[in-house]
Design goal:
This protein folds into 2 domains: 181 residues, Vaccinia Virus protein VP39 (Rossmann fold, 3-Layer(aba) Sandwich), CATH 3.40.50; 56 residues, rRNA adenine dimethylase, C-terminal domain (Helicase, Ruva Protein, domain 3, Orthogonal Bundle), CATH 1.10.8. The longest helix is centred in the first third of the chain and has 11 residues. The strands form 2 sheets. A 7-stranded mixed beta sheet has the order 4-3-2-5-6-9-7. It is 34% helix and 20% strand. The protein is α/β, with parallel strands linked by helices and 252 residues long. The chain has 10 helices and 9 strands.
């Protein structure tokens, strides 16, 4: 029986064999690697992955799709909202120090998923995600560009980011109204040991009024905290490199 894509789950199923092959090559799965796929859907990416891995854990929210996937002998199926999954526990269950994660994320909740995964970064070797290209442009953005923002800083703190593939709408069924892309996120061994909650608050304040100079936002926040260090607030938030935000978070 044909599965009808559900709008409430943001379902757009990858259907182009050439694109699927390109994504699998970008992920480069090896036998017995502990890997988790988020949102396997109709298993377009799942099947070529599991053929190379031997076994694969998948997280699927749609009850009907999860039931179909359970029939596959090489899949561990977790029927759950990914935002409720503890990836540290998952790594432990898979007997792995670090796991690899991939998936075609639902575009309507892609940013919440990325932020949910961030606290588990120490348990993740790398991530390959299909997302709206506009979101990936923000994830990989450099300072002093319009796309550079909170998402750029928070993710680039823990991961080396790379946009590896652009995917047109016609590669999906049904086609989304946007162009998609695939991002590679590799764990950074040299990340700054900052307090994640503090960095998140600091960056959120900085970008809360991105057209204004930082003295109106971050400057006042620093003043309220009694900060006496040296930080140039005569700039806009997008002009400050990631390393400077990290350095500031270590001083506050």
């Amino acid at each position: 029986m044909k599965h009808v894509p559900r709008k409430r789950f943001g379902q757009h199923f990858l259907a182009d064999p050439a694109v699927i092959d390109a994504i699998v090559r970008a992920i480069d799965p090896r036998p017995a690697q502990p890997m988790v796929e988020i949102g396997p859907g109709l298993a377009a990416l799942t099947q070529p992955l599991v053929e190379r891995l031997g076994r694969l854990t998948v997280i699927e929210l749609d009850r009907d799709l999860a039931a179909r996937l359970r029939a596959h002998p090489q899949l561990n199926v977790i029927e759950s909202d990914v935002l409720k999954v503890d990836f540290a526990q998952m790594a432990q269950a898979l007997g792995a120090i670090k796991i690899r994660i991939c998936g075609n994320l639902p575009y309507n909740i892609s940013s919440p998923i990325l932020f949910h995964l961030l606290p588990f970064a120490e348990h993740i070797e790398d991530q390959h995600f299909m997302l709206q290209k506009e979101v990936i442009d923000r994830m990989v953005a450099a300072p002093s560009t319009a796309d550079f923002g909170r998402l750029s800083v928070m993710l680039q703190w823990r991961y080396a980011m790379q946009s590896v593939l652009t995917v047109p709408p016609e590669a999906f069924d049904p086609p989304p109204r946007v162009t998609s892309a695939v991002v590679r996120m590799q764990q950074r061994a040299d990340f700054a040991p900052v307090d994640a909650a503090l960095l998140s608050e600091l960056v959120q304040v900085a970008f809360s009024q991105r057209r204004k100079l930082l003295r109106h936002t971050l400057g006042r926040w620093l003043e309220a905290r009694g900060f006496a260090g040296d930080f140039d607030v005569q700039r806009r938030a997008e002009e400050v490199p990631v390393e400077e935000y990290l350095g500031l978070a270590l001083q506050v």
